[in-house]
Design goal:
The longest helix is centred in the middle third of the chain and has 30 residues. α4 packs parallel to α9, α6 packs parallel to α12 and α11 packs antiparallel against α12. This protein has 344 residues and is an alpha+beta fold. It has two domains: 90 residues, Phosphorylase Kinase, domain 1; 245 residues, Aminoglycoside 3'-phosphotransferase, Chain: A, domain 2 (Alpha-Beta Complex). Strands 1-2-3-5-4 form a five-stranded antiparallel sheet, covered by helices on one side. It is built from twelve helices and ten strands. The chain is 55% helix and 15% strand. The protein is globular, with a radius of gyration of 22 Å. β1 and β2 form a beta hairpin. This is Aminoglycoside phosphotransferase domain-containing protein.
């Protein structure tokens, strides 16, 4: 147990009138056992933004369990500040997560989660100026187009080497798939940009990290944990993050495609789906950003790791890319609204 971190946790809990007994770290979250029960203490990246988001969440969270509100301090604030760090204290939810369900081959919860997410997004929709979004889309298209040119340069570099490395060979074999994925992302981003014709565009309150390990499946319903990153933005950001987190399971489970389509149908039934949102989701899913960043470091000479380690990292990055490409294809195929698989 690190003495400095232990002291910080004790000071943070003192603001709630709680005494620390034991604690265990889970990435950014600390499970704390106190004299008042079990809690999750989480670092807050932006305390001001978090407080504003929690004010908007309060009424919705009191109506249903999807949103897990933080425990307020005695003064009513959703955060406590210790030194230069801000913390939020959440009730500890003792339940299986959606990640556990996926490992057991269970997808039944997925449409219900996406329907709940759609209801949440619909409750917090508001208009925002479209001009900054158009500018961001223009920058994105320009950057992705430059990366398209970089693919050609990397291919020429790999072809001109007398003794290509295993990483060069992996890139050559993956180049066509990477090019097709990047072309699809650029085309979808252009469609999104073309649809932004008005003065305003819709934004919603986002969770920003809705991965299966943050989804608790409780007897009372589905609970989405850790709202410390909540902020305004386009709804498809949450969808893209969530779907991308499912990519490994999609590659491993044959029933995943049907469940994902049923889940997206559930989302669309609950919340009006705009054409530009479909284009933005397609762009986010097809864009091979992680693997492009890997090969950029390799061909620029910035990578300094051992060649064997780099080769293994390239294989892992490409496996993740192919899984995400399969996911993008599944969710980009047009389909009619249909009942859930079990009812069909």
């Amino acid at each position: 147990m690190a003495p400095m971190e232990d002291a910080l946790l004790r000071e943070a809990l003192r603001a709630y009138g709680l005494k620390l007994r034991r604690w265990t770290r889970f990435r950014r979250t600390v499970r704390v056992e106190t004299d008042g029960g079990l809690f999750a203490l989480t670092a807050v990246p932006d305390a001001g933004r978090f407080e504003r988001a929690m004010e908007r969440l309060l009424g919705y969270a009191l109506r249903q369990p999807f949103v897990l509100l933080p425990v307020p301090t005695p003064s009513g604030r959703p955060v406590t500040v210790v030194g230069d760090r801000a913390y939020a204290l959440f009730p500890w939810v003792a339940a299986d997560t959606a990640r556990h369900a996926l490992r057991a081959g269970e997808w039944r919860w997925l449409p219900a989660f996406l329907e709940a997410l759609a209801a949440f997004h619909a409750a917090y929709r508001r208009p925002a100026p479209a001009a900054p979004v158009r500018a961001a889309a223009d920058d994105l298209i320009a950057r992705w187009t430059a990366e398209r040119s970089a693919l050609e340069a990397w291919a020429a570099d790999a072809a001109g080497r007398a003794y290509p490395s295993p990483v060069d060979v992996l890139f050559v074999h993956a180049r066509e798939a990477l090019t097709l994925a990047l072309d699809a992302a650029i085309e979808a981003a252009r469609r999104f940009r073309a649809a932004l014709e008005g003065e305003t565009t819709d934004v919603v309150l986002l969770h920003t990290r809705p991965a299966p390990e943050r989804i608790a499946l409780t007897p009372r319903g589905i609970v989405l944990l850790d709202w410390t990153g909540a902020e305004d933005g386009p709804a498809v950001r949450d969808l893209a993050v969530f779907f991308q987190s499912l990519a490994p399971e999609l590659a491993a489970r044959s029933e995943a495609a049907e469940r994902l389509r049923a889940g997206l149908s559930a989302y669309r039934r609950r919340r009006l789906w705009q054409p530009e949102e479909a284009a933005l989701l397609r762009a986010a899913l097809f864009y091979p950003g992680t693997v492009l960043a890997f090969f950029r470091r390799h061909f620029s000479g910035e990578a300094r790791d051992h060649l064997l380690d780099r080769t293994e990292a390239a294989q892992a990055a490409l496996r993740a890319f192919y899984a995400r490409s399969a996911l993008a294809e599944v969710l980009s195929v047009p389909f009619e609204e249909r009942p859930d698989v079990d009812q069909k």
